[in-house]
Amino acid sequence: MSGDEAFPLKSNLMKPYSRNQLTNERRMFNYRISRGRKSVECAFGMLTSKFALLQTPTSLRTDKIDIIAQSMCVLHNFIRMHDGVFSIPKVPNHIQQRHYEADLPRDNKPKNLRTCLCKYFCDFAPIPHQDVYNV
């Protein structure tokens, strides 16, 4: 999950580097994490427009929310496939496929995880224009 600078950095909540700590690599990380967050917000917006349940506070038990959210995603994809507007994202040719689990820090400290993600975005999975992005 990604938050903005107002959120705390946690192992399950990544946030961008603050503006006074930016290097070129950190700027690229901030750009990539921002793109990811925007994609999630857009996807949730599409689900919200389709399922009215998401437009109001819920009184559902928390152990049921995951299965309901997953069911909504499956239904949404089924509807898009039926309507002929479903597409499978393509991985660009310049991104090398590799497993990075071995590169993850063993301690799961948030700062170490963020550093590892920063390195991954910059070194192993760059996008062509990320180095010219200005924050």
TrEMBL record:
GO MF entries: metal ion binding
Keyword list, A-Z: Metal-binding
Annotated protein name in UniProt: DDE Tnp4 domain-containing protein
Pfam families to which the protein is assigned, alphabetical: DDE_Tnp_4
Lineage: Eukaryota, Metazoa, Ecdysozoa, Arthropoda, Hexapoda
Span of domain DDE Tnp4: 3-77
Entry cofactors: a divalent metal cation
